[in-house]
Amino acid sequence: MDNCLFCKIANGEIESEIVYNDGKLIAFKDVNPQAPTHLLIIPKKHFATLMDIEESDRELMGSVCTVAKILAEKNDLEASGFRLVLNCGSGAGQSVFHVHFHLLGGRPMKWPPG
Fold it and tell me: According to the model, what pLDDT value does residue 83 have?
């Protein structure tokens, strides 16, 4: 997508603090953090929302959980806990229309979240 902020970050067109890159997924620090640790994990393949994902994307999307675990360990979040959030659509709070997962930790989380 030509106008997609996260596609531009994934392609290196916009600078960001990248903390993970395996060629299919990339993770970077959120510019407006909502917790001491706030990372965004995105597929390099563009999907506007979760509703655009197809069966053939199962492995790619499943690997997000593995990357979240790796990043949680790197940020010492195993003991204190963390949250992995995916918003789908503007009514759920999605503001950038490229599927992305928020990895949040380093502070107590409340429930319900929003």
Answer: 97
Catalytic positions are 100
Domains of the chain: 5-105 (3.30.428.10)
Other CB atoms within 10 Å distance of the CB of residue 39: 27
* Side-chain half-sphere exposure of 79, counting CA atoms within 13 A: 1
pTM of structure: 0.95
pLDDT in tens, 14-26: 999 999 999 999 9
Q: The sheet that has 18-21: what strands, in order across it?
A: 18-21, 25-29, 37-43, 101-105, 82-86
Q: Which amino acid is at 62?
A: G
